[in-house]
Design brief:
- The complex is a heterodimer of chains A (499) and B (294).
- Chain A has 21 helices and eight strands.
- Chain A is α/β, with parallel strands linked by helices and 499 residues long.
- In chain A, helix 4 crosses helix 11, helix 12 crosses helix 21 and helix 20 crosses helix 21.
- The longest helix of chain A is centred in the last third of the chain and has 35 residues.
- Helices cover 49% and strands 16% of the residues of chain B.
- Chain B is built from twelve helices and eight strands.
- In chain B, helix 10 links the parallel strand 6 and strand 7.
- In chain B, helix 3 packs across helix 4.
- Chain B is elongated and about 65 Å long.
- Chains A and B meet through helix 2, helix 6 and helix 9 of A and helix 2, helix 6, helix 8 and helix 9 of B.
Chain lengths: 499, 294
């Protein structure tokens, strides 16, 4: 996500970096391009104008050319402004002193309220609470049924009845008290802000149940309307925070930026996938890093911590060491691949990586299905074959192909690429390290530079592998296609902007 | 957009600020940067050629340009197959099921026999939602099991329609983000299987939410690649959004908008009217009557 925005901003920064000293015209030109990039990313026009003005003022005040690296200074100013616009620290979700804590969800049709309600219930449960879902969407056919199915998946009770939305919400509150549930999440019907009758209805629901948290559920793909819609719901309900949905697509994320800037109410949660667990607290500083193409390695490291348990973590660390020593085996590769899936799949992983790497992998058409075939091939090898691929002759190849349901050509391809990758890893190691340390040094104070070494190393190795194995996607017979090698500088593990 | 465009058009002369304001106004209606530049470029040369000094006259020129761009001679839905198969695709929450419900109603009222295929086997209660619409519209519903193979449901629906002599089959599919490679692959499979069923795949319509911003183009492109999209349905145009993102869908992909969704009532689906759409996009009065009281 945010790829286009990161891409555009990065090209602006790249051009600035090439300049060394900055003339006023350079800054003006860059500001114009930043404006264009933000507009193209669906940031509201009014927010863009304000953003550009603030960056300009900051840049003037900073006396750019006294800085060691003027372009870097501009990047830092934009980063700081993005964090500021997105809203500083993550929102804390408080609980009522006298339970139940009441949360109300409102938004346009199709923004994802019902799914978000279930995901939010799951999140509250993970915080040790016992939520009750209230289905007050009596408009959309089968909306309550949908809520019931989702709630059953996560074992959370649902209350609804075929009366009217206000009555359902009130009765739901009473039901929560009766059952001793300490959180109530009220799902409402989608409505257009121009529909006065329905806006009055949602206002009435709000007045009846007096929610502690009123969330606007907002589609991340939304365009310029986000601000107007946000304003209308804010006027009707007094919004506390936003739940941003469908953030797993390639949405440019302007809504997230605009909503905070204009409404003053922050984004609290982000919905990032189809599964009920695909729901995260929103971290503005990390997101700013993503927008600037620095990747969100911190979030990824945290996910990794959660996904790996004890022995596996040690294994992974061992694998990372072997990568650095150039002794990587097919077993290590298999383990990496499986852990990557645990992290939420390839697409999710790519979304967290610096844009350059993600784009490369995407271009190469690396996808889950191909990974599955690779996994099958490795699984059909004996332990000896995995540590010493050199022993695999024609006969073994045929056996492996038959065992994995692939062809001998595919087995050969994998082995060739693996051996090329292993060679590459030995060669790439010093370059990668050098680049990383230089980049980190140049980015003092940047929010997303706090990468835990272990987590970072693990994922770097996984992506490096992916990059190097992407030659698999080239048609058989072709001389390696995008297989790295042949003298070209391999992409470093981290594409820091200070490169 | 209305206010700002109104302000821009009310300026006495066509100075730089006017053009900048016009540009921002179009962008503010979710028209893409590329199309905005293209439209304003045409407008500029037209204005200087015809020596138009009255900014207000630009409004109708702009509306004409938008209408020209969006005009589609082949706007009607293709019913040539027996049965004619219409496939509905789009991102989550863009309005596929609701569109099918309304369209089924219109087709049944026009005297055609309609079968709906509930091939959204993924989302909870999607089949129940479509079943409610089928009942309202008087259409026959073919359903699969939750979590079942959507392509099989599509095939069954078409086979059933062919056997029962129905005129139209509408296949509802699960919403999916266009960036999800595997799910887009599943969609391509649904299309392939539907093509092999005893009907004729006449339309693959992508639903585009009018409130969607620049992402609409990427959606139309990816769904076009996976499902061979033949047209678009612009949904939720009854809200405050003007749906400017479909301009680039038309300009860059040559995908025409065929239908417009205007609400959740049975009759809230109308054929796309380029002139009316363009007028709404550049008109100020109609919009001020909406939300823009503030």
């Amino acid at each position: 996500m945010f790829e286009a925005l990161s891409g555009n901003l990065n090209s602006v920064f790249d051009r600035l970096r090439r300049k060394g000293r900055l003339r006023p015209e350079d800054v003006t030109e860059a500001l114009g391009e930043i404006r264009r990039a933000l507009l193209a990313a669906d940031v509201a026009t009014e927010v863009v104008a304000e953003f550009r003005d603030r960056v300009r003022d900051e840049a003037l005040a900073a006396d750019l050319n006294r800085a060691l690296n003027p372009a870097q200074q501009v990047v830092q100013i934009v980063h700081a402004e993005l964090v500021r616009t997105l809203g500083g620290d993550p929102v804390s979700i408080g609980f009522a002193s006298r339970p139940p804590t009441v949360a109300l969800l409102a938004g346009l049709q199709g923004s994802g309220k019902t799914t978000a309600a279930a995901k939010l219930a799951r999140w509250f449960r993970s915080q040790g609470r016992s939520p009750l879902l209230v289905g007050a969407d009596l408009t959309r056919p089968a909306a309550v049924e949908q809520l019931r199915v989702l709630a059953a998946e996560i074992s959370v009770p649902v209350f609804s009845e075929a009366t009217d939305p206000v009555a359902v919400a009130l009765a739901g509150l009473a039901e929560a008290r009766r059952l001793g549930r300490d959180v109530v999440i009220c799902d409402t019907a989608g409505r257009q802000v121009v529909d006065e009758e329905l806006m009055a209805e949602v206002r009435a629901i709000g007045e009846a149940i007096q929610p502690h948290h009123t969330f606007l559920v907002l589609d991340a793909m939304m365009g310029q309307e986000a601000v107007r819609v946000g304003r209308s719901f804010h006027e009707a309900l007094g919004l506390d925070a936003v739940i941003l949905t469908k953030l797993d697509g390639d949405a440019r994320g302007g809504a997230a930026l605009s909503v905070r800037a204009v409404l003053g109410c922050p984004v609290a949660f982000a919905s990032v996938g189809e599964r009920v667990g695909d729901f995260e607290r929103f971290h503005p500083d990390r997101l700013a890093g993503r927008i600037l193409g620095m990747g969100d390695l911190l979030s990824l490291a945290e996910k990794a911590e959660a996904a790996y348990e004890g022995r596996e973590a040690a294994d992974a660390a061992g694998a990372a060491e072997r990568v650095l020593a150039g002794e990587f085996t097919l077993d290590d590769f298999l383990a990496q691949m499986r852990q990557m899936r645990k992290l939420g799949g390839l697409g999710d992983l790519l979304a967290h990586l610096p844009s350059a790497q993600a784009a490369q992998a995407a271009e190469a058409g690396v996808d889950e299905r191909r990974l599955g075939r690779m996994e099958a091939i490795i699984c059909s090898m004996t332990p000896a074959e995995r540590t010493q691929p050199a022993i695999i002759d024609g006969s073994r190849r045929r056996r492996i192909a038959a065992g994995s349901g692939t062809t001998t050509a595919e087995v050969t391809e994998l082995l060739r690429n693996f051996s090329a990758a292993r060679k590459m890893m030995r060669g790439a190691r010093p370059a990668g390290r050098r680049r990383k340390s230089k980049g980190s040094g140049g980015r003092k104070g940047g929010g997303s530079s706090r990468v835990t070494p272990a987590g970072g190393a693990r994922h770097r190795s996984a992506t490096d592998l992916l990059e190097q194995l992407e030659g698999l996607e080239s048609p058989p017979g072709g001389p390696g296609g995008s297989t790295p090698g042949t003298g070209s500088q391999p992409p470093g593990p981290l594409a820091w902007p200070g490169r | 957009m209305g206010e700002r465009l109104g302000a821009a058009l009310a300026r006495p002369d066509l100075d730089g600020a006017t053009w900048e304001a016009l540009e921002e106004a179009l962008l503010g209606a979710d028209v893409s940067w590329a199309v905005t530049e293209q439209l304003l470029g045409c407008l500029r040369s037209e204005a200087s050629e015809r020596r138009i000094s009255d900014p207000a006259a630009l409004r109708s020129l702009l509306a004409d340009a938008v209408a020209d761009l969006m005009h589609a001679p082949d706007g009607a839905l293709d019913r040539s197959g027996s049965p004619a198969v219409w496939l509905f695709v789009g991102v989550n929450g863009s309005g596929k099921t609701t569109t099918i419900g309304k369209l089924a109603h219109a087709e049944v009222r026009a005297g055609r026999r309609v079968v709906l295929g509930a091939a959204d086997t993924f989302r909870a209660a999607a089949t129940e939602q479509l079943a409610t619409w089928a009942e309202r519209a008087g259409a026959h519903l073919v359903r699969g099991n939750a979590g079942g193979d959507p392509a099989a449901v599509a095939f069954d629906a078409i086979s059933h329609a062919a056997a029962s002599g129905a005129d139209v089959v509408m296949i509802d599919t699960a919403g999916r983000l266009h960036t999800n490679h595997n799910l887009m692959g599943e969609l391509a499979k649904i299309r392939r299987v539907a093509e092999r069923a005893p009907g004729e795949l006449c339309e693959a319509l992508v639903t585009l939410d009018a409130t969607t911003g620049q992402n609409g183009l990427a959606q139309a492109r990816m769904f076009g690649e996976a499902a061979g999209v033949t047209g678009a349905v612009l949904t939720k145009l009854d809200g405050s959004a003007r749906g400017g993102s479909v301009l680039s869908v038309r300009a860059e992909l040559n995908v025409a908008v065929k239908l417009v969704g205007l609400g959740e009532g049975l009759g809230d689906l109308v054929p796309f009217d380029a002139a009316a759409f363009a007028a709404a996009l550049v008109d100020t009065e109609g919009m001020d009557a909406d939300v823009r009281g503030s």
